[in-house]
# Entry
Amino acid sequence: MTERYEVAILGSGPAGLSAGARAAQRGMKHIVLERHDIYAQTIQRYQKGKYVMATPDNLPLRSDISFAAGSREEILGIWGEQAEAAGVNLRYGANVQAIEGEKGNFRVTLQGGDVVEAANLVLAIGDQGELRKVGVPGDDLPHVQYQLDDPEAFENETIVVIGGGDSAIENAVALARQNRVYIAYRRPEWARAKAGNITAVEKANQGDNLDILFSTSPEKIETGKIVMRTPEGSREIACHRVIARLGGIPPRGFLERCGIRFPADKNARIPELSLTYETNVPGLYVIGAPAGAAVIKQCMNQGYEVIETISGNPVEPADEPVLAEKLAGLPGRPPVSEALELIRQQLPLFDELTTLQLREFLLDSEAHLLFAGEPVARTSGKAGTILLIGDGVVQLDLTDKRGATQTVTRTTGDFIGDVGFTSGQRRISNVKAATDCVLIEMARRSVVKLLASSPKARDIFERTVVIRQLQDSLSGELTEQDLGPLLDTAEVKRFAVGDALIKEGATDDKSIYFIRSGSVTISSHADGKETVFGVEPAGSLVGEMALLYDRPRTATVTAAIDTEALKIDGSVFKPFLDARPDLRTKIDQAVHDRVLRGVAYQQDPWRGAVADFLVGEGIGEATNALLIDEALCVRCDNCEKACAETHEGIARLDREAGPTFRNLHVPISCRHCENPHCMADCPPNALNRDEKGEVWIDNTCIGCGNCAANCPYGVIRMAVPGPKKPGLLQWLLFGRGPGPGEDEALLKMKKVDKDGKELPKFAKKCDLCRGVKGGPACVRACPTGAAIRVNPADYFQSMGGRS
Amino acid sequence: MTAAATHESFLEYRRFRWLKLGIGLSILSLLPFFVMAPPAGHNGGTWLGYTLGTIGALLILWLMWLGIRKRRYGPGNWSLKGWLSAHVYLGLALIVVATLHTGFEFGWNIHTLAYALMILVILSGIAGLFVYVRVPTLMTGNRRSQSLDAMAEQIVEIDGEAANVALGLSDEFADLVRMSQNETRIGGSFRRIVTARDPNCGTARAIARARDLARNLDPRTAQRAAELVQTLGRKQELVQRARRDLRYKALMDLWLYIHVPLSFALLITLTAHIIAVFFYWG
Ligand SMILES: Cc1cc2nc3c(=O)[nH]c(=O)nc-3n(C[C@H](O)[C@H](O)[C@H](O)COP(=O)(O)OP(=O)(O)OC[C@H]3O[C@@H](n4cnc5c(N)ncnc54)[C@H](O)[C@@H]3O)c2cc1C
Ligand code: HEM
Ligand code: HEM
Ligand code: SF4
Ligand code: SF4
Ligand code: SF4
# Structure
């Protein structure tokens, strides 16, 4: 027997639940089909106690079910109650296998053979897909599991974790605290995981409880054991549990089997959809994550809207009034849909976006209308935003690292503010509108998302940035046309730490390399050992000597950290230079400077050793590092006290910890990395990077600890800010309070509020004393000059300068 | 931007700016002293005396202000390094300024007491300067890139090794290992910290006793005993390094416990001196 519904909703995530609640409210005959035995499977799988965010803040929620930021448990509880109260018809254990039919007459087949009939279908199946199975005999035995909710639930077991992604590593590391863990990965090295996780698992590997098995894959699983294929042959491991974290199978395949059309690009994850989320199949709608909704609130709004549409009451999207207000400044006040089209036409970066995506990006942006001559100021207060020029000409002054200033213009379709995204060699000042302008200011996180979701946007952005970098390093006068031949033949090459770009003595290789990000060491081989005699930062050109002087490679150039370089063929670069004698002179000069620096290094071999040490400590990726000369440091810790006193009672440096070579000590404190690892996955995007390179955490931090785990240098602390202390004179004269510096006793105590609830900890790190007159307090407060904060590139240069 | 790309010590701050100014101040005080010949001879009561005295007193107040400056971490273009540089060089120039002020009229009175205290403060300052210049390098060298905690950990490790070695030897040796474990102290009393010595060090005694006991043993046992002596020797070296580390740290802190209280004493007597001269004068 089959039942007929006006609408069947597949999936009971935020999108499906909200749709179900709306249908119930409207009195529609509906059913929500959920394959698991509980609603909102994706949210149920969040880690215990996770703080769920309700971004974007400015997007109104439109749903019969409420949602506000809070803990996973709170939110799920509310949803359950409200769905029931609203009369949502939920059917669990309904795993949809196939869909056929057309509008008015769809047939949904469930696993087990049951069929559900409905006039309209709403697919709200999320983008988690189905978890990938191990795919060997025994992969569904009871001791094999595909997720892990609470690593602390297991103790004193032997556990084999399969996979090499972030979840596999995170699980393995967490389990190794109280179990014997093997992590098996089919590749010979980590390929997909975040740097922070790699560091963590490598560290755990040193201990007794965790072993990494590379190039190892499962052969079969039997009760109490697993058999693996290893490079040395078959290996059997007796274990209590196998946990496979192999990711999910994306839902695109399933959607295509339902007859839903996707854009031509085979990587596209979002099907072709109308503004009302209807697919090419009339009556078949897709909402939620597979429709491009990135966050819960959008999913819930879509659930509401889609039911309104089906019941013949189309509503404008919830973000309409917000967008209308944002775009109100545009000349002629066009309606939102026209304004969006206009913006898309003018800005090639937006070319590929669906209207839904475009709306989402603009929700996180500000439009500005400027008259000729007006200065361009950012409104968001956060640096690191990107200004897209929707229309008009903007004029700006660029200052390069030598201090030379040049005025350039940017026109419609172009953007400014990319410096915060790249190595930050350039400084921009005096930005003003040269004609009347329309500017769109986009938050950094939206730009990151834009680049991730649109290959075309990424290409345009990359190319523009490379052009600007080349202009910086060669000459600002070069136009895109001039650089064209270089760009068209250039290859982007990535080098891992220790990879050689250029090998000493090579005769067949005449390419030059432009270092886009990272840094390289220059060394040569003599007396049986490799001596470093220079470090070149991002923005430098290396390898030009062999080309200019037509000789074999005189030195080896090695990536000091992960480095990205543009490889330009000698046969292209030579004629390019020959046609520009001024540029050629400039490069000759730069070569001479470098050779002279090399001499200084060679005179005093320990400079090379110091450079080698610093590079080994990862200083090559820093834009600003704290370095202490221990021959001057009197261990007074005034640096730490200064930092604590100016930063909520919590020092953001640990003077004593960290490596030392000779007299040079690298304390634990933020290095303001060129490509900050810590920023990789902060849920509220609380980490920011200014144009000067400062990486800092704003007050939207939710205390999740991701940044601290991701920073390879251990500089981020999770802490509760200390209470206010009595003033300095009160302490000096009357002994009130603990005195300057961090009050360790207080910090160690568990902090509770009035009601005895534990206070949340937040991520604390050095902000480079950003915006503070006089700069870093730690440096100013050092009585002897032992502590300095430097751009390592400058430091390496000055090591070569003093002879 | 590139101004501070390398380390520069407080002594060479801005190419010895404050050294030059200190010398300048001294010359400026000396010139009138030799050019002018007041009828009653030089003393604090001539107008030159008053001028030098006032400069001296202000300098002292300013030198003491360093204690406040050091702990005010607020924003501003100050640098404690610059302040210390000035402190040292102007503090030294004070010898000239204040001495000329006195006109070399010393006696057993409050005035000379103030002067004497000032000289003591300056001498302690000079001592501190030596400590600051010398000890940091010694400390780094002594550490060999190992933190104090790491040394402590290694000591515990060696204790374990020693106990293992002693297993193959008579109980007397095992007792020695236990003695070394229980009776070796790092730090403790003021004397032990500052001298970095413990005349009663358990490990030192254990080594001496072990060598005594190791006489006339059969070859295998003798080799074991030698091994124990070597293990304890390694521990002794570490212990000694840890003690030296504490000593160095103490040296860098301790001298200030003389310098600062003396400057307060100076401040009080100086006030008394100034009141006294006005009292007599009035
Ligand atoms: C770790 C993590 C943290 C996140 N944190 C946040 C946050 O803090 N704030 C925020 O706003 N967003 C967050 N998100 C994003 C948010 O979870 C998603 O945007 C949202 O869950 C998508 O909702 P949805 O309804 O489209 O799909 P889902 O929530 O994925 O729900 C889909 C449902 O459909 C069911 N289903 C799937 N296939 C079938 C089938 N064939 N038959 C029947 N049922 C099926 C599934 O079991 C599931 O219950 C986070 C995501 C992850 C992974
Ligand atoms: C405002 C600052 C000062 C004033 C007004 C002042 C004033 C005087 C006067 C008037 C005399 C002459 C007294 C006499 O001849 O009987 C004197 C002498 C002296 N002053 Fe000062 N003085 C000042 C600061 C100092 C300082 C900073 C020192 C050193 C710490 C100092 C040490 C002396 C000494 C040692 C004498 C000689 C005492 C003697 O004659 O027996 N004075 N001072
Ligand atoms: C009368 C003269 C002087 C007075 C009143 C004086 C006073 C002070 C005071 C109050 C401090 C602050 C200590 C603290 O709070 O930690 C200080 C520190 C110091 N003084 Fe002097 N001082 C004098 C002369 C000198 C001289 C001549 C020298 C060196 C030649 C010197 C070297 C130092 C040094 C090295 C410090 C330590 C700075 C630090 O570590 O922060 N002082 N002095
Ligand atoms: S916290 Fe600092 S050192 Fe760590 S990754 Fe971020 S920028 Fe780099
Ligand atoms: S720069 Fe500022 S925030 Fe950073 S360590 Fe120094 S004092 Fe602390
Ligand atoms: S303030 Fe300077 S001298 Fe004091 S501990 Fe810090 S680096 Fe060393």
Remarks:
- The domain at 490-604 of chain A is CATH 2.60.120.10 (Jelly Rolls).
- The mean pLDDT of chain A is 87.
- The CA atoms of residues 109 and 798 of chain A lie 72 Å apart.
